[in-house]
């Protein structure tokens, strides 16, 4: 027989932990008869198992683990399914570890600059040289000493300005003079310790007497030839070459016998 004033209810069929506490009040579970009438010994035993005295059966004692907030956070569909420990261990978005963890990004190795080119005559190089030589027509001869400046405007290509002193041994009166020449030089083979080149240009020559004899004291000096450089040490290169050398006044004066010589020369080239 049910005790008056106590309303009996059927226990939920589901396991207690799975009951939605938002739909079933917690007092219903605490006050529901457990296998007997309310107020019976079985109720007292149930009360004892729930941690309350038989005299306070109608007073709910909510448990910390059975609060609606607990179940709401446990089963709420909006709750995150990712543990906080995993989230806290994730590297920051802009950190290097985050970049390394990305499987889509390939590792880009730094490109090392090419080794410095040690070939003779790179673009922008400025050099100077001293040289001496001798020329002959197999009838008349002259000697030459001088210096020059070189600027490489393209790899292996230089423009050269020379100032030379010349002494002429010839039929008639000998003469001495000064020669200013502009030459273009192309080092068509450039290696670390040597190079091969061709060059050519023209200049102006003034002498103390007619050169050649019967000519004039002012002449032009077109010339062309080839040569080689050989590294002597870190800075100095040996120069040696041979060229065709012409002297004439281009018909500016009455006499213009002209003179063609084969000239050989040697020099030393320095950086500046």
Describe the 3D structure.
- With 272 residues, this protein is mainly beta.
- The chain has helices at 26-31, 41-49, 68-75, 84-89, 96-101; strands spanning 126-136, 141-154, 157-169, 175-190, 194-211, 216-220, 223-231, 237-247, 259-271.
- Helices cover 13% and strands 40% of the residues.
- Strands 1-2-3-4-5-7-8-9 form an 8-stranded antiparallel barrel.
- The chain is elongated, with a radius of gyration of 54 Å.
- The chain starts with 25 loop residues before the first helix and ends with a strand.
- Mean pLDDT is 76; it is low at 26-40, 53-57 and 70-75.
Question: SSE layout and pairings?
Answer:
Layout: H1 26-31, H2 41-49, H3 68-75, H4 84-89, H5 96-101, E1 126-136, E2 141-154, E3 157-169, E4 175-190, E5 194-211, E6 216-220, E7 223-231, E8 237-247, E9 259-271
Antiparallel strand pairs: 1-2, 1-9, 2-3, 3-4, 4-5, 5-6, 5-7, 7-8, 8-9
Name the features.
272 residues, 9 strands, 13% helix
H and E string: HHHHHEEEEEEEEE
- What overall geometry do the principal axes of the alpha carbons give? elongated
Number of helices: 5
Spatial sequence of strands, sheet with the most strands: 1-2-3-4-5-7-8-9
Radius of gyration: 54 Å
Overall average pLDDT? 76
Total number of beta strands: 9
Low-confidence stretches: 26-40, 53-57, 70-75
How would you characterize the largest beta sheet? 8 strands, antiparallel, barrel
Alpha-beta content class: mainly beta
């Amino acid at each position: 027989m049910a005790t008056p004033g106590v309303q009996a209810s059927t226990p939920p069929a589901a396991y207690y932990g799975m009951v939605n506490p938002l739909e079933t009040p917690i007092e219903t579970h605490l006050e529901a008869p457990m296998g007997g009438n309310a107020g019976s010994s079985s109720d007292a035993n149930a009360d004892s198992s729930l941690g309350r005295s038989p005299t306070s059966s109608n007073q709910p004692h909510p448990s910390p683990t059975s609060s609606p907030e607990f179940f709401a956070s446990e089963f709420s569909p909006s709750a995150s399914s990712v543990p906080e420990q995993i989230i806290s261990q994730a590297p920051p978005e802009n950190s290097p570890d985050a970049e390394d963890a990305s499987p889509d990004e390939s590792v880009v190795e730094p490109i090392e600059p090419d080794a410095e080119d040690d070939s003779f005559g790179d673009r922008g190089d400025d050099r100077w040289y001293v040289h001496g030589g001798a020329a002959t027509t197999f009838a008349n001869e002259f000697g030459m000493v001088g210096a020059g400046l070189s600027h490489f405007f393209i790899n292996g290509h230089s423009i050269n300005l020379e100032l030379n002193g010349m002494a002429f041994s010839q039929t008639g009166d000998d003469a001495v003079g000064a020669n200013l020449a502009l030459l273009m030089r192309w080092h068509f083979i450039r290696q670390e310790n040597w190079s091969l080149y061709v060059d050519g240009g023209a200049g102006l020559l003034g002498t103390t007497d007619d050169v050649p004899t019967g000519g004039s004291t002012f002449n032009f000096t077109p010339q062309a030839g080839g040569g080689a450089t050989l590294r002597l040490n870190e800075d100095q290169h040996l120069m040696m070459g041979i060229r065709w050398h012409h002297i004439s006044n281009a018909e500016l004066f009455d006499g213009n016998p002209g003179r063609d010589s084969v000239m050989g020369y040697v020099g030393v080239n320095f950086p500046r």
